[in-house]
Automatic annotation (TrEMBL):
CDD domains, A to Z: DOMON_like
Any coiled-coil regions, as ranges: none
Signal sequence range: 1-21
Domain of life: Bacteria
Keywords, comma-separated and alphabetical: Signal
Domain Carbohydrate-binding per the UniProt entry, residue ranges: 54-258
Species name: Aquimarina gracilis
Name by which UniProt lists this protein: Sugar-binding protein
Length: 259
Protein backbone atom coordinates (compact mmCIF):
# COMPACT_ATOMS: atom_id res chain seq x y z
CA UNK A 1 0.00 0.00 0.00
CA UNK A 2 1.36 3.41 -1.00
CA UNK A 3 1.40 6.07 1.74
CA UNK A 4 1.96 9.62 0.64
CA UNK A 5 4.43 11.94 2.39
CA UNK A 6 1.46 14.13 3.43
CA UNK A 7 -0.23 11.16 5.15
CA UNK A 8 2.95 10.32 7.03
CA UNK A 9 3.27 13.90 8.21
CA UNK A 10 -0.35 13.94 9.39
CA UNK A 11 0.13 10.71 11.35
CA UNK A 12 3.28 12.10 12.92
CA UNK A 13 1.52 15.30 14.00
CA UNK A 14 -1.40 13.39 15.51
CA UNK A 15 0.96 11.19 17.48
CA UNK A 16 3.09 14.01 18.86
CA UNK A 17 0.65 16.90 19.37
CA UNK A 18 -0.67 17.11 23.00
CA UNK A 19 -4.38 17.34 23.69
CA UNK A 20 -5.83 20.74 24.36
CA UNK A 21 -8.25 21.53 27.16
CA UNK A 22 -11.32 22.55 25.18
CA UNK A 23 -13.62 19.64 25.93
CA UNK A 24 -13.69 16.80 28.44
CA UNK A 25 -15.87 14.76 26.10
CA UNK A 26 -12.86 14.06 23.90
CA UNK A 27 -11.03 12.36 26.75
CA UNK A 28 -9.05 15.30 28.06
CA UNK A 29 -8.32 15.48 31.78
CA UNK A 30 -9.98 17.91 34.18
CA UNK A 31 -6.57 19.19 35.20
CA UNK A 32 -5.85 20.38 31.68
CA UNK A 33 -8.90 22.64 31.79
CA UNK A 34 -7.25 25.07 34.19
CA UNK A 35 -6.70 28.58 32.96
CA UNK A 36 -3.20 29.87 32.47
CA UNK A 37 -2.86 32.49 35.18
CA UNK A 38 -0.68 35.49 34.53
CA UNK A 39 1.38 36.11 37.67
CA UNK A 40 0.91 39.54 39.19
CA UNK A 41 1.71 41.24 42.49
CA UNK A 42 4.64 38.84 42.80
CA UNK A 43 6.04 38.87 46.33
CA UNK A 44 8.79 36.83 47.94
CA UNK A 45 8.03 35.27 51.32
CA UNK A 46 10.90 34.31 53.62
CA UNK A 47 11.13 31.04 55.52
CA UNK A 48 10.80 31.29 59.30
CA UNK A 49 13.69 29.83 61.26
CA UNK A 50 11.52 29.79 64.39
CA UNK A 51 7.84 29.02 63.94
CA UNK A 52 5.68 31.97 65.09
CA UNK A 53 3.71 31.31 68.25
CA UNK A 54 0.00 31.89 67.73
CA UNK A 55 -0.60 34.29 70.63
CA UNK A 56 -1.85 37.45 68.95
CA UNK A 57 1.43 39.27 69.53
CA UNK A 58 3.89 40.68 66.99
CA UNK A 59 7.11 39.97 68.88
CA UNK A 60 8.15 36.73 67.18
CA UNK A 61 11.57 36.87 65.48
CA UNK A 62 9.98 35.83 62.17
CA UNK A 63 7.66 38.85 62.17
CA UNK A 64 10.46 41.26 62.96
CA UNK A 65 12.22 40.26 59.74
CA UNK A 66 9.14 40.12 57.49
CA UNK A 67 7.84 42.98 55.34
CA UNK A 68 4.52 44.75 55.91
CA UNK A 69 2.11 44.81 52.98
CA UNK A 70 -0.99 46.96 52.74
CA UNK A 71 -4.60 45.83 52.88
CA UNK A 72 -5.88 48.85 50.99
CA UNK A 73 -7.85 47.91 47.86
CA UNK A 74 -11.55 48.78 48.11
CA UNK A 75 -13.36 45.88 46.45
CA UNK A 76 -16.85 46.76 47.70
CA UNK A 77 -18.49 49.65 49.52
CA UNK A 78 -18.14 53.40 49.82
CA UNK A 79 -14.87 55.20 50.56
CA UNK A 80 -13.84 54.83 54.20
CA UNK A 81 -11.67 56.83 56.59
CA UNK A 82 -8.58 55.79 58.53
CA UNK A 83 -10.69 55.99 61.70
CA UNK A 84 -13.04 53.37 60.30
CA UNK A 85 -10.46 50.97 58.88
CA UNK A 86 -6.76 50.36 58.37
CA UNK A 87 -5.12 47.02 57.56
CA UNK A 88 -1.73 45.50 56.82
CA UNK A 89 -0.14 42.04 56.90
CA UNK A 90 3.04 39.95 56.88
CA UNK A 91 3.79 36.41 55.68
CA UNK A 92 6.37 33.73 56.47
CA UNK A 93 6.47 29.99 55.82
CA UNK A 94 7.78 26.66 57.02
CA UNK A 95 7.57 23.30 55.21
CA UNK A 96 4.43 22.54 57.23
CA UNK A 97 2.43 25.75 56.86
CA UNK A 98 2.06 29.33 55.73
CA UNK A 99 1.94 31.87 58.58
CA UNK A 100 0.09 35.16 58.37
CA UNK A 101 0.11 38.19 60.67
CA UNK A 102 -2.67 40.72 60.16
CA UNK A 103 -3.10 44.06 61.92
CA UNK A 104 -6.58 45.56 61.62
CA UNK A 105 -7.75 48.92 62.91
CA UNK A 106 -11.55 48.75 63.01
CA UNK A 107 -13.62 51.08 65.17
CA UNK A 108 -16.39 48.48 65.65
CA UNK A 109 -16.18 44.68 65.58
CA UNK A 110 -19.54 43.23 64.61
CA UNK A 111 -20.76 39.62 64.66
CA UNK A 112 -24.50 39.45 64.10
CA UNK A 113 -24.77 35.80 63.04
CA UNK A 114 -23.84 33.35 65.77
CA UNK A 115 -24.40 30.44 63.37
CA UNK A 116 -21.00 30.27 61.57
CA UNK A 117 -22.63 28.91 58.40
CA UNK A 118 -25.20 31.71 58.04
CA UNK A 119 -24.36 34.88 56.08
CA UNK A 120 -20.75 34.56 57.26
CA UNK A 121 -19.52 37.20 54.79
CA UNK A 122 -21.71 39.91 56.35
CA UNK A 123 -19.88 39.78 59.70
CA UNK A 124 -16.47 41.26 60.37
CA UNK A 125 -14.00 38.61 59.22
CA UNK A 126 -10.62 38.09 57.59
CA UNK A 127 -10.75 36.30 54.25
CA UNK A 128 -7.70 34.32 53.11
CA UNK A 129 -7.46 33.18 49.49
CA UNK A 130 -5.11 30.27 48.71
CA UNK A 131 -4.34 28.60 45.38
CA UNK A 132 -1.87 25.82 46.16
CA UNK A 133 -0.41 25.48 42.66
CA UNK A 134 -0.91 29.09 41.53
CA UNK A 135 -2.81 27.82 38.51
CA UNK A 136 -5.70 30.27 38.70
CA UNK A 137 -9.11 29.46 37.32
CA UNK A 138 -12.54 28.95 38.80
CA UNK A 139 -12.97 27.58 42.31
CA UNK A 140 -16.41 28.68 43.50
CA UNK A 141 -17.61 25.12 44.09
CA UNK A 142 -14.33 23.22 43.85
CA UNK A 143 -11.04 22.88 45.70
CA UNK A 144 -8.99 24.30 42.87
CA UNK A 145 -8.48 27.13 45.38
CA UNK A 146 -9.90 28.13 48.76
CA UNK A 147 -11.52 31.30 50.11
CA UNK A 148 -11.29 30.89 53.89
CA UNK A 149 -13.56 33.29 55.81
CA UNK A 150 -12.17 33.49 59.34
CA UNK A 151 -14.75 34.83 61.80
CA UNK A 152 -14.15 36.76 65.01
CA UNK A 153 -14.74 33.53 66.96
CA UNK A 154 -12.15 31.64 64.88
CA UNK A 155 -14.53 29.56 62.76
CA UNK A 156 -13.34 29.09 59.17
CA UNK A 157 -15.91 28.84 56.36
CA UNK A 158 -15.80 28.22 52.62
CA UNK A 159 -18.17 26.71 50.06
CA UNK A 160 -17.86 23.00 49.34
CA UNK A 161 -18.35 21.06 46.13
CA UNK A 162 -22.01 20.57 47.08
CA UNK A 163 -22.45 24.38 47.01
CA UNK A 164 -23.03 24.43 50.77
CA UNK A 165 -20.87 26.18 53.39
CA UNK A 166 -18.47 23.99 55.33
CA UNK A 167 -16.20 24.53 58.31
CA UNK A 168 -12.48 24.27 57.54
CA UNK A 169 -11.20 24.79 61.07
CA UNK A 170 -8.57 22.09 60.51
CA UNK A 171 -7.08 24.11 57.63
CA UNK A 172 -6.64 27.44 59.41
CA UNK A 173 -5.85 28.06 63.07
CA UNK A 174 -5.98 31.60 64.43
CA UNK A 175 -5.48 33.71 67.51
CA UNK A 176 -6.81 37.27 67.76
CA UNK A 177 -6.00 39.86 70.42
CA UNK A 178 -7.90 43.15 70.37
CA UNK A 179 -6.79 46.22 72.27
CA UNK A 180 -8.96 49.28 71.77
CA UNK A 181 -9.77 49.46 68.08
CA UNK A 182 -6.70 47.46 66.93
CA UNK A 183 -6.80 43.69 66.45
CA UNK A 184 -3.76 41.50 65.89
CA UNK A 185 -4.56 38.23 64.14
CA UNK A 186 -2.08 35.38 63.72
CA UNK A 187 -2.85 32.47 61.38
CA UNK A 188 -1.37 29.08 60.66
CA UNK A 189 -2.58 27.94 57.24
CA UNK A 190 -2.15 24.31 56.26
CA UNK A 191 -1.99 24.10 52.47
CA UNK A 192 -4.17 21.64 50.56
CA UNK A 193 -4.40 21.33 46.79
CA UNK A 194 -7.24 20.49 44.41
CA UNK A 195 -7.19 16.80 45.38
CA UNK A 196 -8.68 17.65 48.79
CA UNK A 197 -11.96 15.82 49.47
CA UNK A 198 -14.33 16.05 52.41
CA UNK A 199 -14.84 12.93 54.52
CA UNK A 200 -11.49 11.27 53.86
CA UNK A 201 -7.94 11.63 55.16
CA UNK A 202 -6.11 14.25 53.11
CA UNK A 203 -2.38 14.87 53.07
CA UNK A 204 -1.40 18.55 53.21
CA UNK A 205 1.30 19.87 50.92
CA UNK A 206 4.88 20.11 52.09
CA UNK A 207 6.08 23.57 51.14
CA UNK A 208 9.44 24.00 49.44
CA UNK A 209 11.76 26.77 48.35
CA UNK A 210 10.79 28.56 45.12
CA UNK A 211 7.27 27.16 45.25
CA UNK A 212 4.61 29.55 43.97
CA UNK A 213 1.18 29.93 45.57
CA UNK A 214 -1.73 32.09 44.60
CA UNK A 215 -2.53 34.38 47.52
CA UNK A 216 -4.83 37.26 48.37
CA UNK A 217 -6.21 38.68 51.58
CA UNK A 218 -9.32 40.69 52.40
CA UNK A 219 -11.36 42.06 55.29
CA UNK A 220 -15.14 42.22 55.48
CA UNK A 221 -16.08 45.28 57.53
CA UNK A 222 -19.53 45.76 59.03
CA UNK A 223 -20.22 48.52 61.54
CA UNK A 224 -23.70 47.38 62.53
CA UNK A 225 -25.63 47.04 59.28
CA UNK A 226 -27.61 44.08 57.99
CA UNK A 227 -24.98 43.57 55.28
CA UNK A 228 -21.25 44.24 55.17
CA UNK A 229 -20.39 47.83 54.35
CA UNK A 230 -16.92 47.38 52.93
CA UNK A 231 -14.78 44.64 51.47
CA UNK A 232 -11.11 45.65 51.42
CA UNK A 233 -8.55 43.48 49.63
CA UNK A 234 -4.82 43.20 49.13
CA UNK A 235 -4.74 42.95 45.33
CA UNK A 236 -5.75 45.46 42.67
CA UNK A 237 -8.56 44.03 40.52
CA UNK A 238 -9.31 45.94 37.31
CA UNK A 239 -12.84 46.63 36.11
CA UNK A 240 -16.06 47.47 37.91
CA UNK A 241 -16.72 44.06 39.48
CA UNK A 242 -13.97 43.51 42.03
CA UNK A 243 -15.77 40.88 44.12
CA UNK A 244 -14.18 38.02 42.18
CA UNK A 245 -11.80 36.34 44.61
CA UNK A 246 -14.35 33.81 45.86
CA UNK A 247 -15.02 32.70 42.28
CA UNK A 248 -11.85 33.06 40.22
CA UNK A 249 -8.29 32.47 41.44
CA UNK A 250 -6.86 34.38 38.46
CA UNK A 251 -7.21 37.58 40.52
CA UNK A 252 -5.00 36.26 43.36
CA UNK A 253 -1.51 37.64 43.63
CA UNK A 254 1.49 35.31 43.51
CA UNK A 255 3.81 34.58 46.42
CA UNK A 256 7.17 32.84 45.95
CA UNK A 257 8.65 30.95 48.90
CA UNK A 258 12.28 31.82 49.59
CA UNK A 259 14.88 30.83 52.19
Amino acid sequence: MNISIVSVLLLFLLATTPLTSNDLSTGKSATSQKSSKTDHQIREVKRAVIVPKLDGEMDDPAWKEAIWYGLDQRWLGEPYTFTDFFGRYKLVWTPEALYLLVEIKDDLLYDQNKDPLKLWWDDDCVEIFIDADNSGGGHQYSNNAFAYHVALDGNVVDLGADKKPLLYNNHVTTKRVTKGDVSIWEFEIIIYDETYKEGIVNDPLILTENQKLGFALAYNDNDGSQERENFIGSVFIPGEDKNLGWINADVFGTIVLKE
